[in-house]
């Protein structure tokens, strides 16, 4: 039945489904997982890197930082899905954040940045400007009169990527959001996207607590990845980990991506725990 209704994003099935959007979700489900945890003093993001070849230079641009991106001074994100699609959305976010800062001389609120991008995804990534077809990261401006009508026609597809946003602003403090190809977004205390996301969600439901600290969140997020990744042992080449926290002394939001030397002791501790658990199971 789906074959008759999945050729375009603009065709509803008799059940009221948009199959192309569901297929985009499926693409994310097959990608490396990403997990986010909101702590009382920061936000932690972690993602699985899938190295496709041993010959790949893990220090090269685009490989060393495959999943974590800084959007603005106070906002960062982790991605799961098609990286090429993620690059478009990330550049759109960065441009929207800079335009807001230029206009109002203050950082854009985190939720407003997420909503701006999700409006863009839902309406379509291209707007018809009076000067031609250009990417417009903001909500339709005076040049975008035909935007809504343009996106009712075929030729565009959903972005095959889901994002986790971590940030801080004066109004709401630390925040964690997730968005998907449909344009939906929501705030979360802890969430996971990508492969085995359901299993990761189950572990988070059991072990997450409201007053969790940043240090505890880092340990929990590594534990979640260790139980949901296909790999038997964790290594810095397979995981990216980052935190968003606030430096009270300098009144600055700090986005920090863990280097291999920082990440290795944390992963080794989890690997040792897994070995002990296996030994106990074998003895039992």
How is this fold's topology laid out?
Elements: H1 19-29, E1 34-39, E2 42-48, E3 68-72, E4 75-81, H2 83-104, H3 110-123, E5 127-129, E6 132-134, H4 147-150, E7 161-169, E8 173-179, E9 185-187, E10 190-193, H5 197-207, H6 214-228, E11 239-247, E12 252-257, H7 260-283
Antiparallel strand pairs: 1-2, 1-10, 2-11, 3-4, 4-7, 5-6, 7-8, 8-9, 11-12
Helix pairs in contact: 2-3, 5-6, 6-7
Notes on the structure:
By secondary structure, the protein is α+β, with helices and mostly antiparallel strands. It contains 7 helices and 12 strands. It has helices at 19-29, 83-104, 110-123, 147-150, 197-207, 214-228, 260-283; strands at residues 34-39, 42-48, 68-72, 75-81, 127-129, 132-134, 161-169, 173-179, 185-187, 190-193, 239-247, 252-257. The strands form 3 sheets. A 5-stranded antiparallel β-sheet has the order 10-1-2-11-12. It is globular.
């Amino acid at each position: 039945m789906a074959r008759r209704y999945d050729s375009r994003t603009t065709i509803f099935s008799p059940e009221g489904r948009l199959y192309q959007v569901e297929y985009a979700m499926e693409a994310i489900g097959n990608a490396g997982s990403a997990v986010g945890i909101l702590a009382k003093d920061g936000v932690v993001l972690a993602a699985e890197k899938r190295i496709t070849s041993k010959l790949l230079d893990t220090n090269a641009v685009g490989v060393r930082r495959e999943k974590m991106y800084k959007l603005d001074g106070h906002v960062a994100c982790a991605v799961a899905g098609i990286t090429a699609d993620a690059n478009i959305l990330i550049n759109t976010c960065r441009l929207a954040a800079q335009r807001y800062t230029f206009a109002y001389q203050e950082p854009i609120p985190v939720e407003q940045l997420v909503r701006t991008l999700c409006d863009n995804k839902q309406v379509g990534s291209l707007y018809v400007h009076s000067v031609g077809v250009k990417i417009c990261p903001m909500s339709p401006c005076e040049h975008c009169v035909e935007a809504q009508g343009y996106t009712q026609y075929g030729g565009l597809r959903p972005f095959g990527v889901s994002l986790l946003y971590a940030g801080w602003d004066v109004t709401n403090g630390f925040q964690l959001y997730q968005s998907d190809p449909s344009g939906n977004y929501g705030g979360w205390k802890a969430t996971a996207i990508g492969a085995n996301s359901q299993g990761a969600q189950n572990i988070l439901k059991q072990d997450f607590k409201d007053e969790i600290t940043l240090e505890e969140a880092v340990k929990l997020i590594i534990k979640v990845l260790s139980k949901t990744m296909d790999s038997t042992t964790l290594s810095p080449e397979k995981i990216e980990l980052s935190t968003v926290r606030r430096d009270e002394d300098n009144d600055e939001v700090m986005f920090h991506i863990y280097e291999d030397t920082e990440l290795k002791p944390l992963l080794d501790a989890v690997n040792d725990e897994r070995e002990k658990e296996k030994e106990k199971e074998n003895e039992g």
